[in-house]
Write a structure and sequence with these properties.
Structural class: alpha+beta
Helix content: 25-40%
Strand content: 15-25%
Number of strands: 19
Largest sheet: 10 strands, antiparallel
Number of helices: 13
Length: about 600
């Protein structure tokens, strides 16, 4: 017998609390549409059962959000009677529970009504509003009972936005979703009343509307100001949802440029196999996130098409375990006019100067050098990290982040030790920004001088003919303990040689080979130790490698070659300031260190 499905009758809490306190993994959701917290507690992948007030509140968030998404899908499928009945039920529930701001929310939050966060309220309201809009396209007679809910949702979004912008936070990612929520609710209410939508100035073009938000929240290089893959997509998705029924030709040209630039960012950092690096505080792997990326790509392709995003959608479908989730059909015709022109594919090297990322693509390697601003609350202490991917393999990924309520694991994954960067004297980097030293069609070089007092680090990454060269130079005003770090996301073999560079082999769907050497005359200790893998499961171990020297200056050189590339690297030598790479066909190339 199928489980009874019903809407939960309690207010939601903070979804980030849905995490195992022992193991740091997100708990199993169970049947979110059942409306009842899992019997015996929420399951952890490592065998725990967790049941406390915070976890129950978090589960309620997931359940209410799942119901809102489910109703949007049911409306698209034409299952009208059941959808309207649930909307009416939510209208009554919202009237009972959401009479004031949530008193149990964390003090830093902009507090919501149905949930701890106004942000969570807004995400839920967007799906509710679009559910009604879809139903109203065919008939409105049975939707009048839902008007109190729609009007209250718009009022709540406006109230929250007024508080937020009054604090000078027009650029906040909250603002994007509050505008999307207010717009969706007001559009739906207008449709039920049989009126033209009059909320364009309030929610799109006005002083605090979506367009004003995008103009201040997105830098010239196309990145949302936080420099986080997740929050970048989070804001872009809110914008695309807010623009339902809008003709792209009617969007101001500068805003079109912002939306196109944001889309280009994702197309550029995505690997050919569709991996989106979890830069700066995003969840590493999570099924609901895959659904969000799938939705974003479906909408973005209708506005500013990019063939580079097709693999992102394919990977998301694979992670969800379904080839046909109905999103393409559900979102078809979202915009009222034809899409804008196709976007050009990215070249071998792209530098995002404001966000501080260099992206290099060649010979089966997709590399990202991180040198930008800290990123506020979503930044990590990771300047000059070098992330390495194959088409489908995260050889050395940004490790991502656990649900925020787990303070210990959250700090672990924000730490310098968790990232493929450098440390000095075993200490954490300061929260700081690096600077771009230079770039060309084959290379990116960046430096950081504020991570440690009296220390300058320069990292140059270059595309060779069939390999990647990484030159990291760290200089102090006196002798310091300097450590360069490898942080694999896959299985790794490490082999020291009697003579010549240390060798590494990185496994996955593709294989990567590495050669690692250093300044002559400076003893460097390579130590391989087990450490936590990416943040979707902190209990999974990966082999970390630390190269440590006690010196006032050290150059650490690495050469990487995908097994699919050739001719094979045959020798790697660092002589003073010059690195020589020789290939099996007898050719060679030289690279100079920086700094």
């Amino acid at each position: 017998m199928a489980a009874l499905r019903r809407i939960a009758r309690e207010r939601g809490g903070w979804w980030h609390a849905y995490v195992c306190p022992a193991h740091g993994v997100e708990l199993d959701h169970g049947d979110l549409l059942a409306g009842v917290f899992p019997d015996g507690g929420a399951r952890c992948a490592h065998g725990c059962r967790v049941d406390d007030e915070a976890v129950r509140g978090a589960w309620l968030v997931l359940s209410h959000q799942a119901w809102a998404r489910h109703l949007r899908v049911l409306a698209h499928r034409g299952e009208r009677a059941g959808t309207v009945a649930r909307l009416v039920e939510y209208t009554g529930l919202y009237g009972e529970l959401a009479t004031e701001r949530h008193g149990e929310a964390q003090t830093w939050m902009l507090r919501g009504r149905l949930f701890h966060q106004a942000l969570t309220d807004a995400i839920w309201a967007v799906n509710i509003g679009h559910t009604v809009i879809t139903l109203a396209e065919k008939d409105t007679d049975d939707l009048w009972a839902v008007l109190p809910l729609l009007d209250e949702l718009e009022r709540a979004a406006l109230d929250a936005r007024t508080v937020l912008t009054g604090q000078g936070q027009l650029a906040s990612n909250y603002t994007a979703w509050l505008n999307a929520a207010g717009g969706a609710a007001s559009r739906a209410a207008a449709a039920v009343r049989g009126r033209d939508w009059g909320g364009g100035e309030r929610w799109l073009s006005g002083e605090h509307g979506l367009y004003a938000h995008l103009r201040v929240a997105v830098a010239d290089d196309g990145w949302e100001w936080e420099g986080s893959t997740y929050y970048h997509g989070f804001v872009l998705r809110a914008a695309l949802l807010a623009l339902r029924s809008t003709d792209p030709a009617d969007i101001p040209s500068d805003v079109v440029g912002v939306l196109a630039g944001m889309t280009d960012v994702l197309a550029t950092i995505a690997t050919p196999g569709g991996i989106l690096p979890a830069l700066h505080d995003g969840p590493y792997l999570r099924a609901p996130l895959a659904l969000e990326w799938l939705e974003l790509v479906a909408l973005a392709q209708q506005l500013v098409p990019s063939t580079a995003l097709e693999p992102v959608a394919a990977r998301a479908r694979s992670e969800l375990g379904t080839a046909d989730d109905g999103l393409d059909g559900e979102l078809a015709g979202w915009f009222a006019g034809p899409p804008l022109p196709e976007r050009a594919a990215p070249g071998p090297v792209t530098v995002f100067a404001s966000a501080g990322y260099g992206v290099l693509r060649g010979a089966g390697i997709h590399a990202l050098l991180d040198f930008g601003p800290h990123g506020g609350s979503h930044g990590h202490r990771d300047k000059l990290s070098l992330y390495l991917y194959g088409d489908n393999t995260p050889w050395q990924p940004d490790p991502g982040q656990v649900p925020y309520a787990h303070a210990e694991f959250r700090d672990l994954y924000a730490s310098t030790a968790a990232h493929p960067t450098f440390r000095v004297d075993g200490a954490e980097q300061a929260e700081c920004a690096g600077e771009l030293v230079g770039s060309d069609s084959r290379s990116v070089t960046a430096e950081v001088t504020a991570a440690y007092e009296g220390v300058r680090a320069v990292r140059g990454v270059t595309l060779g003919s069939c390999y990647l060269v990484d030159l990291l130079t760290v200089t102090g005003t006196e002798s310091r303990r300097i450590t360069a770090q490898l942080r694999p996301g896959t299985a790794l073999d490490v082999q020291t040689q009697a003579t010549g560079p240390l060798r590494t082999t990185w496994y996955g769907e593709e294989t990567l080979h590495g050669w690692h050497t250093h300044t002559g005359g400076v003893p460097v200790r390579p130590v391989a130790v087990p450490g936590p893998g990416p943040a979707d499961d902190p209990q999974r171990t990966r082999t970390r490698v630390d190269f440590t020297a006690d010196a006032d200056r050290v150059v650490l050189a690495s050469v990487y070659q995908a097994s699919s590339a050739g001719p094979a690297v045959s020798a790697v030598r660092l002589d003073g300031e010059e690195l020589t790479v020789e290939l099996a066909d007898g050719s060679s190339a030289r690279f100079r260190t920086e700094g």
